[in-house]
Design goal:
alpha+beta, 5 domains, 15 helices, 25% strand
Length: 677
């Protein structure tokens, strides 16, 4: 049976202003517009799917011709006859100021006297001012959807989906008041997936892959209770294995599906990656200086570098006090750099309807209450890359089939809560075999959790040195032979066979490390681990992997990691810019207009959000080289721009702040001139 893949590209144009909110749903406070990773408005796929479900209900009441197809298209059940992947709508072009703020107030209302209307007061009611951020009419968005089904029924499903999309003519808030009207243009492309596995000769037993999420990725850490749901910033081997198995099954690759389910193919943990380089969880021995020094001088007043990290294995007890890293830090062993994987916060709230209001009754007579409990969830921003390794030592043909399937790039990998679509690509990594130097101590770092049960108690070990002593009995580590940093973690999960949560299992956390100073025992451990990919239990799920090194684990922040300015740095930047303006006595007489400074600020914001930003020096150089009338004013302050470029140090964020400072200075100067006149 042939499987057809249909790619649906939808261009959405706003005919009216649109407000999709930020997830609060209460309408009681200022509501801003939700943004994507590029700080541009976005229409999330969850909202679109909700509109499609509502549209299907309305259409079925009028004509149930497509009811069966609607149920299959909008169902998340594995028994569905088709699979539809809905993508969010992102702006097709980056534009400055794509939104504007609309404000409104309630009225004082009607007052009564003796049962009759006494006065109708239209004055604004105190404390009722609300602001809402709307996307401007005329904005254009694009989305890519994908539909997978049998070739025989593909035409019917595509026709039903087209009917659904065309029925959605309004989105966002205040749809009944004329807001959010849209026009959708649909184009489709059809591809038949190959039924047979034709593979070239491939003797490799492992495959490195990169997973790139096309939508915000939710990997909830459900161990922590509360209305803030944190996320893991890595993809566990078990989660990735299940997603890959489902990915193969949907494309009709039964042999690959069975190999993954039966653990013939091992899947490692997938950690955030940059530029195709493999990162590991930051070793626990890497620490940062404490945020305060001895005495009353704050850390930001001492001109100390905030990106210096030390190896606690190599530090003496008399060194600067250190503290553990807090956050989602990952380490690159070759370049010895760190970066922190950021997360975004998405707020969620249940939609309020007329059936969820106080005073209403259910069929059984119970009250229906307004469930407006707000909760927030952490998500991993879109276009984040993760790197993992698939290996199979018994059948290299399976790795060859996986390589070919990934190269086709036909169907996205569905991952995490909500099945976020992800793109799969292959990567190459030059591996250097570890060679032991018998003059240096050995450091072993866990790059994934380690599960090792005690032979005596049957309970998992929580200390790395205890697990190593059992796995390698000849080692017989004593306290004087090593220094270790160990931490515990909990493995949880959900069994779809039983419908119950899995029993939590205690493991030694990734990043735990041990430094063996006894050279003989270090050599013994290196010989034991040299020919092993992993140790302990559940190795096919990525557990028990490690890194061996004899270098000090020092680190610096990744050069591409642009941290936000702290409050003190912002104050210092503003002070420097104001001094620059005050030192130029004729600045206000020669300065370009407010409009020109505002245009420069918008250009800098666009460059900051761009994937390939223009260097700041080029932007300032273009201002003074263009000789037309609108740019001529920049020539008169060429020296000021040169000093400003030096202050900003080729960073766009300080340059945007500088434009704001100049705009404020120009406004204050105009006000002062008006008072004198």
């Amino acid at each position: 049976m042939a499987i057809q893949l249909t790619t649906i590209k939808i261009s959405l144009t706003l005919l009216e202003d649109l407000h999709t909110g930020n997830g609060l749903g209460t309408h009681l406070i200022d509501s801003l517009q939700t943004k994507d990773a590029n700080d541009q408005p976005v229409i999330w796929r969850q909202h679109i799917k909700g509109l499609l479900v509502a549209a299907s209900t309305t259409i079925n009441k009028l004509n149930n011709k497509y009811e069966k197809y609607f149920n299959d298209l909008l169902s998340d059940s594995p028994q569905s006859n088709c699979t539809l992947v809905i993508g969010s709508f992102y702006k097709s072009k980056l534009t400055p100021n794509p939104t504007h703020i609309l404000s409104s107030t309630a009225r004082e209302g009607v007052s009564y006297k003796n049962g009759a209307i006494d006065m109708i007061n239209r004055a604004p009611k105190k404390g009722s001012l609300r602001n809402q951020e709307y996307i401007k009419a005329g904005s254009e968005f694009e989305a890519t959807w994908q539909l997978l089904c049998d070739q025989q029924t593909a035409t019917d499903y595509i026709q039903a989906l087209t009917v659904l999309i065309n029925h959605v003519d309004r989105i966002g808030a205040s749809r009944n008041r004329g807001a959010g009207r849209v026009r959708c243009d649909i184009t489709t492309d059809h591809t038949l997936l190959a039924a047979n596995d034709v593979c070239a000769a491939n003797e490799q037993q492992s495959l490195h892959i990169i997973v790139t999420n096309l939508e915000p990725l939710r990997l909830p850490n459900t161990d922590i209770p509360g209305n803030i749901v944190p996320t893991h910033t890595y993809i566990s081997g078990e989660r990735l294995k299940a997603a890959l198995a489902n990915w193969c099954l949907l494309q009709g690759k039964q042999a690959l599906f069975e190999a993954l389910v039966n653990e013939v193919i091992s899947v490692s943990y997938a950690y955030p990656s940059r530029e195709g380089m493999r990162y590991i969880p930051a070793p626990l021995c890497i620490a940062a200086p404490k945020s305060h020094a001895e005495g009353a001088i704050p850390w930001w007043a001492q001109q100390t570098q905030a990106n210096e990290f030390a190896d606690q294995f190599a530090e003496s007890s008399t060194s600067v006090p250190l503290k553990r890293l807090k956050g989602h830090f990952y380490y690159q062993p070759q370049s010895q750099t760190l970066f922190e994987q950021g997360v975004a916060i998405h707020m969620r709230n249940k939609v309020r309807t007329q059936f969820s209001m106080p005073g209403h009754k259910k069929d059984n007579g119970a009250d229906i209450v307004d469930d407006s409990d707000l909760f927030s969830e952490e998500v991993i921003p879109e276009q984040t890359q993760f790197m993992a390794t698939l290996s199979c030592s018994t059948n290299s043909e399976l790795i060859a089939q996986l390589t070919q399937l990934i190269a086709q790039n036909a169907w996205p990998l569905l991952l995490g809560r909500g099945k976020a679509p992800c793109k799969l690509t292959t990567a190459t990594e030059a591996s250097t075999p570890f060679e032991f130097n018998n003059t240096k101590p050995l450091t072993a770092v866990l790059t994934s959790p380690l599960l090792c049960y005690s032979y005596h108690t049957g309970q998992p070990y929580t200390q790395l040195e205890q697990a190593l002593n059992q796995l390698c009995p000849e080692l017989n580590l004593d306290k004087k032979d090593y220094t270790a940093f160990s931490e515990q973690d909990i493995l949880t999960g959900y069994s779809f066979e039983t419908g119950l949560p899995k029993t939590p299992t205690q493991v030694i956390a990734a990043g735990s490390c041990i430094k063996i100073t006894n050279i003989e025992k270090a050599q013994l451990l290196a010989a034991y681990l040299k020919h092993s990919r992993a140790i302990g239990e559940r190795q096919t799920q990525g557990l028990g992997q490690f890194l061996l090194t004899q270098q000090n684990l020092t680190a610096t922040l990744d050069a591409s990691f642009n941290r936000r300015l702290c409050d003190k740095e912002v104050e210092q930047q503003i002070d420097n810019i104001y001094k620059l303006i005050q030192n130029d006595k004729s600045f206000f007489n020669r300065s370009p207009s407010v409009t020109q400074w505002q245009k420069l600020k918008n250009e800098l914001k666009l460059q900051k959000a761009s994937s390939d930003p223009k260097p700041l020096s080029n932007t300032f150089a273009e201002l003074t080289t263009q000789q037309n009338q609108s740019k001529h004013a920049w020539l008169s302050i060429a020296g000021f721009l040169s000093d400003l470029e030096r202050l900003c140090s080729e960073q766009h964020e300080p340059a945007i702040l500088a434009c704001d400072c100049v705009l404020v200075a120009l406004a204050n100067h105009s006000a002062k001139q008006g008072e004198q006149a």
